[in-house]
């Protein structure tokens, strides 16, 4: 039994060692990602549900193709960026490029889409997001109302006056705020009235089993009713089928996003497939 214990221990430390090694490779690769130009952006269109089903905006999603590691998914590298503080320069880069892309599309296609940018809670805690957004909007000449910042419940649970003050100032500039992944975080709903939000994105885990799952049907229709009473526009995420889309339309969901309409696209595919076709 003793030997067995020692084998287990050795196995364990070896796994931990490998894990630590993989982690440090990831970290050092990430440090070079920005300067090596390994990061890029893709854009997923967001469609209005009511009236004509036209594209009204898009969400910007970060992609990393590492020279050393190949494609790494944001679910793997964003948390590491947050821990290392790299999310500050990377987040700034994303915001800048997203806004200048949106402005260029408006100028070139006459299509006033909103652009939604994901912002991590670390950015609000360690940076003056108001000054940054002001500077980026000034430099890119994008009107504030076309920028939406997507924040998760983790930004709001903090309950810090510092974050609330930043969100209010951003709202006063005309920037829109969306609560992302709604329903997956903390259960308190009080932040919905305390924070100056304008959109609510229902997490795709609630959409996945529509329109069959009775619980999800109840939850999604209740979320939409509640959001509308609070004057929030609703976006359903992860819409993959026509049946889901129709069901959401029946519930007066304002906008949908997901593979049913389109996967996230690079700049030229977005221009070809979305901006120059008969969607509008
Ligand atoms: P998110 O903000 O919830 O973004 C939506 C994710 O759902 C994206 O994954 C998108 O590709 C995926 N998706 C879209 N439609 C569908 C669908 O119909 N079905 C399914 N199964 N998935 C769909 P992605 O691009 O891998 O991004 C993952 C997460 O990484 C994002 O989740 C967001 O939290 C984070 N992220 C991505 N880009 C950034 C960024 O620039 N900054 C920050 N802070 N976080 C980012
Ligand atoms: Ca998002
Ligand atoms: Ca989301
Ligand atoms: Ca998510």
Automatic annotation (TrEMBL):
Organism listed in the record: Pseudoalteromonas peptidolytica F12-50-A1
Residues annotated as domain EAL: 23-278
UniProt protein name: Diguanylate cyclase
Lineage top rank: taxon: Bacteria
């Amino acid at each position: 039994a003793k030997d067995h214990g020692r084998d287990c221990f050795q196995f364990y430390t070896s796994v931990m060692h490998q894990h630590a090694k993989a982690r440090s490779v990831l970290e050092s690769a990430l440090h070079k990602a920005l300067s090596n130009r390994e990061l890029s952006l893709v854009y997923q269109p967001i469609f209005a549900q009511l009236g004509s089903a036209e594209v009204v905006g898009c969400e910007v999603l970060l992609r990393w193709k590492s020279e050393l590691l190949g494609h790494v998914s944001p679910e793997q590298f964003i948390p590491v960026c947050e821990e290392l503080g790299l999310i500050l320069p990377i987040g700034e880069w994303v915001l800048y490029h997203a806004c200048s892309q949106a402005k260029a599309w408006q100028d070139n296609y006459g299509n006033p889409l909103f652009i939604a940018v994901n912002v991590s809670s670390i950015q609000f805690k360690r940076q003056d997001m108001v000054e940054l957004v002001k500077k980026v909007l000034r430099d890119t000449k994008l009107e504030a109302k076309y920028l939406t910042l997507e924040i998760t419940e983790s930004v709001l649970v903090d309950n810090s006056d510092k974050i609330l003050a930043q969100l209010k100032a951003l709202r006063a500039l005309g920037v829109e705020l969306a609560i992302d992944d709604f329903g997956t975080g903390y259960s308190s709903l009080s932040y919905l009235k305390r924070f100056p939000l304008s959109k609510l994105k229902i997490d795709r885990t609630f959409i996945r089993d529509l329109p069959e799952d009775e619980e999800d049907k109840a939850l999604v229709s209740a979320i939409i009713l509640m959001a509308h009473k609070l004057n929030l526009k609703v976006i359903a995420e992860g819409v993959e089928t026509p049946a889901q889309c129709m069901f959401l339309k029946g519930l007066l969901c304002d906008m949908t996003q997901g593979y049913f309409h389109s996967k996230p696209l690079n700049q030229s595919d977005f221009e070809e497939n979305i901006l120059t076709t008969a969607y509008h």
